């Protein structure tokens, strides 16, 4: 990572990848942040034994990449963090080299020739045949990758495979001599407060050992779809990326990947991918060169308090099925929109992230039991998992300009103007013929519906899990729910393309 990505003046911490780019800018960051690192509490006596046992299995990862020079070629000033000790020096140096108007002398404002950019990260050997695990962002877009052993021996490595979703990569090199390898431990057995040891290559200072405790487990920081990090206060910095996090038995329990820091230096908040995740990813990359994740074929959303009240689910939990892929494994198994998945293959599902992770980690083709809640009752469905074909593909809904609000044509309910779907309305709102229900033509700006982001052109398909075809149907269902003492009503809403989602609206 370059210095340009650091924002020390921001008021909130930021997540930083830990790879180190060479150059004066990186050196300035090292000098700037070194004095701010918090002191580490003394750990147990076993730390020295762990370090001595495993340090030769920890390697430095050196990469090079050809990049196009931008701006004023060699006269471009490095981007340094405010307050850097080199900031004033470079400011004066580059201003003196530029002519009137801010351009460089001689009128050279071109980009210059391509140049080599180098970076360093960390990794560790898991097989004496020369198999290394590191982070994907350490080797991403590299033209050349080299592994540097603890004694300084440098060997060219080749890429076996990467998984961008978990930011992991596997490398292979030909050993010049016998190697020491480490094994994975069980990250599920870690407890809060357990001591852990990080070894890596911070700021190009290879073979660096730091220690701390497990601060938290299963941490979701919204950096990816399968977040479940180990949080530790062991000092890790840029350059530690891809390095191992050990328990006191010398087993790898995590791969150091991210830090949160306002300055770029360690403030005691670091994150490691747990070994349980790493081991499964590494096995597949070694076997197939790619990830083959399980696929259930459903779109899911959170079970909010309002939705849970509407579905009689106490306490709120699980993953609400908002849509079912017609070609996915869930369809023939009988899973439907409105079902709430509370258990998958014997594992409890507390929220949508839990379901995403456990499905992805399950073998393709395996038959599993999926426990759902439908209309307040638990049911078990047997599903044979398919394969997620394109995990990197992101499907984003494209919003079109909304037409001017239409006057109410039926009646208002829940702050909505509703109308029976007809040919003219389908054309106006670009609604597919396959979509059935009642179209929203206007939304009261002060209503709960507006807060839940309902908009003109949305189609209400079901109310309280019953199909509706007119505004009168909706009003009847709402009136009945009020009589039953319900505080909210659950709507199944479709956009013009037929993509479904559940929305709970207050009826009070």
UniProtKB/TrEMBL annotation:
Q: Name one GO molecular function term.
A: serine-type endopeptidase activity
Quote the Pfam families the UniProt record gives.
PDZ, PDZ_2, Trypsin_2
Residues covered by region (Disordered): 97-119
**EC annotation from Swiss-Prot or TrEMBL:** 3.4.21.107
**Catalytic activity entry:** Acts on substrates that are at least partially unfolded. The cleavage site P1 residue is normally between a pair of hydrophobic residues, such as Val-|-Val
- Gene Ontology BP term (one): proteolysis
Indicate the segments forming the PDZ domain, all copies: 285-376, 397-496
Q: Which UniProt keywords apply?
A: Hydrolase, Periplasm, Protease, Repeat, Serine protease, Signal, Stress response
Per UniProt, substrate binds at: 137, 167, 239-241
User: Which residue windows does the record flag with biased composition (Gly residues)?
Assistant: 99-113
Per UniProt, subcellular location reads as: Periplasm
CDD domains membership: cpPDZ1_DegP-like (cd10839)
Q: Name one GO cellular component term.
A: periplasmic space
Catalytic residues (positions):
137 (charge relay system), 167 (charge relay system), 241 (charge relay system)
What positions belong to coiled-coil segments?
A: none
* Superkingdom to which the source organism belongs: Bacteria
Q: Say which family it is in.
A: Belongs to the peptidase S1C family.
PANTHER family associated with the record: PERIPLASMIC SERINE ENDOPROTEASE DEGP-LIKE-RELATED (PTHR22939:SF130), SERINE PROTEASE FAMILY S1C HTRA-RELATED (PTHR22939)
List the protein's name: Probable periplasmic serine endoprotease DegP-like
Q: Look up and give the organism this protein is from.
A: Bradyrhizobium commune
Task: Give the organism's phylogenetic lineage.
Answer: Bacteria, Pseudomonadati, Pseudomonadota, Alphaproteobacteria, Hyphomicrobiales
């Amino acid at each position: 990572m370059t210095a340009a990505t650091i924002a020390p003046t921001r008021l909130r911490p930021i997540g930083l990848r830990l790879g180190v780019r060479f150059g004066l800018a990186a050196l300035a960051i090292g000098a700037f942040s070194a004095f701010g690192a918090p002191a580490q509490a003394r750990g147990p006596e076993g730390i020295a034994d762990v370090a001595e046992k495993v340090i030769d299995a920890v390697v430095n990862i050196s990469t090079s990449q050809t990049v196009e020079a931008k701006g004023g070629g060699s006269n471009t000033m490095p981007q340094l963090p405010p307050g850097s000790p080199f900031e004033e020096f470079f400011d004066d140096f580059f201003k003196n080299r530029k002519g009137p108007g801010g351009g460089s002398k001689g009128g050279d404002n071109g980009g210059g020739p391509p140049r080599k950019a180098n970076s360093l990260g960390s990794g560790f050997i898991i097989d004496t045949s020369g198999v290394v695990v590191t982070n994907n962002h350490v080797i991403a877009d590299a033209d050349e990758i080299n592994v540097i052993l603890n004694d300084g021996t440098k060997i060219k490595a080749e890429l076996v495979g990467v998984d961008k979703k978990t930011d992991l990569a596997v490398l292979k090199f030909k050993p010049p001599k016998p190697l020491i390898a480490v094994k994975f431990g069980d990250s599920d057995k870690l407890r809060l407060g357990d001591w852990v040891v990080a070894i890596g290559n911070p700021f190009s200072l290879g073979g660096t050992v730091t220690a701390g405790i497990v601060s938290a487990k299963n941490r979701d920081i919204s950096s990816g779809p399968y977040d479940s990090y180990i949080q530790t206060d062991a000092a890790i910095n840029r350059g530690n990326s891809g390095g191992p996090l050990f328990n006191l038995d010398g087993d790898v329990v995590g791969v150091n990947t991210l830090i949160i820091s306002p300055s770029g230096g360690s403030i005691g908040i670091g994150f490691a991918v747990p070994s349980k995740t790493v081991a499964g990813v590494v096995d597949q990359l070694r076997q197939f060169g790619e990830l083959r994740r399980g696929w259930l074929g459903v779109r899911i959303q959170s079970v909010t308090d309002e939705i849970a009240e509407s579905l009689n689910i106490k306490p709120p939990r699980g993953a609400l099925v908002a849509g079912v892929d017609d070609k996915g494994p869930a369809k023939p198994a009988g899973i439907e929109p409105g079902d709430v998945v509370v258990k998958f293959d014997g594992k409890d599902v507390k929220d949508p992230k839990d379901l995403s992770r456990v499905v992805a980690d399950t073998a393709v083709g395996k038959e599993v039991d999926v426990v759902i809640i439908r209309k307040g009752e638990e049911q078990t469905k047997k599903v044979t998992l398919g394969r997620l074909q394109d995990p990197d593909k992101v499907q984003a809904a494209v919003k079109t300009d909304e037409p001017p609000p239409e006057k109410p044509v039926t009646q208002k309910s829940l702050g909505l103007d509703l109308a029976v779907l007809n040919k003219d309305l389908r054309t106006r709102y670009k609604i597919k013929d396959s979509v059935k229900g009642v179209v929203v033509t206007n939304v009261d700006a002060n209503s709960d519906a507006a807060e839940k982001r309902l908009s003109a052109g949305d189609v209400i398909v079901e109310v309280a899990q019953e199909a509706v075809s007119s505004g009168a149907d909706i009003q009847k269902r709402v009136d009945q729910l009020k009589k039953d003492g319900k505080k909210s009503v659950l709507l199944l809403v479709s956009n013009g393309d037929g993509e479904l989602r559940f929305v709970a609206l207050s009826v009070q």
